[in-house]
């Protein structure tokens, strides 16, 4: 450290002034020690809450090639909103000028969109509605359910098959011109399953944001002499997600000693509310849990003809199919969130992006939303846990709950002021369906052949990277009863009147805590987990099942 030409003694003195001042936790004037987190003598317990290396079951982890956007991108990610969302670069749709287009392609990528704020007006509340605590109320408790940030494609997803097809064509020789010229030199650089650098920032920033919004609730832990438990699953990206959230919330390296991160095993056959498809038979190995994927594929077969004709006219020695159109659109999304930039984005028009979004809408509405016969059953585990925390009662072991982790204060505390569980987008949507938050799905079941715009459901608003469902529990002296609560999805407040019996219209989306809990308990009784997950019924896309299986089964499968 001699680069300023200072003598080493002087350097040492400067360093000690700047960095090495001993830290003493003195409360600021006017506050008391009860306002300082963490409380004295608290520490994480690595025996009760072991790290990823001990828990195991990280799932598939495939490292990608290092990004090189400084060389590959056609513009630089200036932090002034001109090229996309810093540090990403995303162009205007094909045929539009980046100077005049206001169409943000990233908002039409379904579950591959980076999360963005959704206005409460989308679900019927006035423009004045805000996620800020309504004046006159105090927040007493926060429950957060959030998804991992951007990741590589899951194993076996379309982009890798497309890459293999291009590699094949390269060996036999293909020519590309015009917009597709880049394809001659293009190689596949993505890994699989892991969180990307941008994905890490999403969870980190969510942690920073929630500390700023709700840090005051840490004082409850100080009063109790405890540190929080935040939960996640064992897949590598899920562990890293919870760590990045905690790093943003508590700081680096403080998070290493201020929160116990509880890692629940995600693996076939293991009960886990955060990975219910691992034990709900109908969700996985039968067609009942994937009627949305089938509907989406059928829709895509007709949606990109015009663009495919243009792209096919620019190549010889390879022919692109509707499956390839989806794969190239996914490459646009994945390369952008993994590498910072993608040459594929430029190939598609505004209409293509609208169709791409609808492809995801169909997939998620019928796989994990109200059009699915197994979504409420899969969301039941989290619904039981939310209700357990609301009522300070351990949930009974059924659905995908893991009794070991749900029936004792060590692993399932009932007295926290802040809860934060990390999971997958399918489970977040299953949970919203289990909660029966119908304003999110208001209108006709989604049309299978075109976007009729007759439903409030939009996938990128509910299941994007780092999507988050927030429950605020409030004390509002002006209300009767004073204990109120409300639900917020990606900053949109969800109205409860006309949806939850006994909740009347409230511009802030508030309803009596006790009333909401009783509505949710009724909903729990209504969701027949065993039937929906294990019975041999027939279900089809095109119907709003309210997330529950039709009663047409001839037997229970085992
Ligand atoms: C952003 O910064 C770049 C580089 O200075 C500049 O070329 C561009 O015009 C700026 N865009 C906006 C919207 O300010
Ligand atoms: C690659 O070419 C071989 C031989 O023509 C074919 O069997 C295989 O299915 C092709 N693979 C892909 C991914 O197109
Ligand atoms: C919650 O209760 C448990 C056991 O009753 C106690 O050990 C723990 O410190 C409490 N935690 C908080 C955050 O109050
Ligand atoms: C509960 O989870 C543990 C590990 O996290 C696992 O070993 C056990 O099998 C699970 N229980 C059930 C019933 O799946
Ligand atoms: C689109 O192309 C497919 C063949 O890939 C064809 O079956 C279908 O009829 C076309 N759809 C429209 C709307 O042109
Ligand atoms: C590609 O272009 C070269 C040079 O024009 C030509 O010889 C070759 O046949 C073309 N290949 C295909 C698959 O069209
Ligand atoms: C595991 O899940 C099954 C349903 O899939 C449920 O019947 C059982 O009670 C759960 N077991 C435990 C120990 O949580
Ligand atoms: C947290 O502390 C505040 C202030 O004492 C209190 O009003 C609130 O009920 C506490 N929250 C919980 C969940 O105990
Ligand atoms: C909730 O109340 C508002 C205001 O009265 C009304 O416009 C809206 O239709 C109601 N929502 C439902 C689902 O009934
Ligand atoms: C499930 O139901 C279908 C249609 O009713 C029937 O054909 C099939 O044999 C049943 N499968 C099982 C395993 O019971």
Automatic annotation (TrEMBL):
<keyword id="KW-0378">Hydrolase</keyword>
<keyword id="KW-0732">Signal</keyword>
<dbReference type="InterPro" id="IPR033379">
    <property type="entry name" value="Acid_Pase_AS"/>
</dbReference>
<dbReference type="GO" id="GO:0003993">
    <property type="term" value="F:acid phosphatase activity"/>
</dbReference>
<dbReference type="Pfam" id="PF00328">
    <property type="entry name" value="His_Phos_2"/>
</dbReference>
<feature type="signal peptide">
    <location>
        <begin position="1"/>
        <end position="20"/>
    </location>
</feature>
<dbReference type="InterPro" id="IPR029033">
    <property type="entry name" value="His_PPase_superfam"/>
</dbReference>
<protein>
    <recommendedName>
        <fullName>3-phytase</fullName>
        <ecNumber>3.1.3.8</ecNumber>
    </recommendedName>
</protein>
<dbReference type="InterPro" id="IPR000560">
    <property type="entry name" value="His_Pase_clade-2"/>
</dbReference>
<dbReference type="GO" id="GO:0016158">
    <property type="term" value="F:inositol hexakisphosphate 3-phosphatase activity"/>
</dbReference>
<comment type="similarity">
    <text>Belongs to the histidine acid phosphatase family.</text>
</comment>
């Amino acid at each position: 450290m001699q680069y300023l030409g200072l003598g080493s003694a002087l350097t040492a003195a400067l360093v000690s002034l700047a960095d090495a001042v001993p830290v003493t936790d003195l409360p600021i004037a006017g506050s008391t020690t009860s306002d300082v987190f963490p409380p004295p003598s608290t520490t994480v317990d690595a025996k009760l809450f072991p790290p990823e290396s001990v828990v195991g079951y990280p799932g598939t982890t495939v490292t990608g090639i290092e990004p090189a956007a400084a060389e590959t991108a056609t513009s630089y990610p200036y932090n002034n909103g001109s090229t996309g969302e810093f540090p990403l670069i995303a162009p205007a749709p094909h045929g539009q000028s980046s100077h005049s287009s206001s169409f943000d392609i990233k908002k039409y990528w379904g579950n591959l969109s980076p999360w963005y704020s959704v206005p409460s007006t989308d679900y019927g509340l006035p423009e004045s509605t805000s996620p800020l605590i309504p004046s006159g109320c105090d927040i007493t408790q926060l429950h957060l359910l959030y998804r991992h940030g951007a990741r590589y494609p899951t194993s076996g997803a379309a982009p890798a098959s497309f890459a293999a097809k291009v590699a094949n064509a390269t060996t036999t020789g293909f020519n590309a011109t015009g917009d597709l010229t880049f394809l001659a030199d293009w190689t596949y650089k993505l890994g699989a399953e892991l969180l990307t650098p941008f994905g890490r920032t999403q969870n980190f920033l969510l942690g920073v944001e929630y500390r700023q919004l709700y840090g005051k609730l840490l004082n409850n832990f100080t009063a109790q002499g405890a540190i929080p438990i935040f939960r996640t699953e064992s897949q590598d990206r899920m562990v890293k997600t919870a760590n990045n959230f905690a790093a943003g919330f508590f700081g680096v390296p403080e998070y290493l000693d201020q929160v116990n991160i509880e890692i629940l095993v995600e693996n076939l056959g293991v009960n886990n509310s955060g990975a219910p498809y691992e034990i709900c038979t109908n969700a996985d190995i039968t067609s009942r849990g994937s009627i949305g994927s089938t509907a989406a594929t059928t829709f895509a077969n007709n949606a990109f003809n015009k663009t495919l004709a243009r792209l096919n006219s620019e190549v010889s020695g390879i022919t692109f199919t509707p499956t390839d159109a989806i794969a190239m659109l996914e490459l646009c999304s994945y390369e952008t969130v993994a590498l910072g930039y993608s040459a594929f984005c430029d190939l598609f028009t505004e209409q293509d992006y609208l169709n791409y979004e609808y492809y995801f809408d169909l997939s998620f509405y019928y796989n994990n939303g109200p059009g699915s016969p197994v979504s409420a059953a899969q969301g039941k585990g989290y619904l039981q846990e939310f209700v357990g925390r609301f009522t300070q009662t351990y949930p009974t072991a059924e659905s995908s709950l893991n009794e070991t982790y749900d029936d004792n204060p060590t692993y399932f505390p009932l007295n926290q002021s802040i809860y934060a569980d990390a999971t997958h987008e399918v489970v977040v949507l299953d949970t919203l369906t289990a909660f029966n938050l119908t304003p999110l799905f208001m209108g006709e079941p989604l049309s299978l052949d075109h976007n009729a715009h007759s439903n409030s459901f939009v996938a990128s608003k509910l299941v994007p990277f780092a999507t988050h469902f927030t429950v605020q529990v409030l004390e509002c002296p002006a209300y009767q009863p004073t204990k109120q609560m409300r639900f917020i999805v990606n900053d949109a407040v969800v109205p409860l009147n006309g949806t939850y019996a006994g909740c009347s219209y409230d511009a802030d989306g508030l309803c009596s805590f006790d009333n909401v809990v009783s509505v949710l308990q009724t909903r729990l009784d209504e969701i027949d987990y065993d039937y929906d997950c294990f019975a041999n019924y027939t279900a089809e896309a095109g119907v709003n099942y309210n997330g529950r299986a039709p009663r047409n089964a001839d037997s229970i499968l085992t």
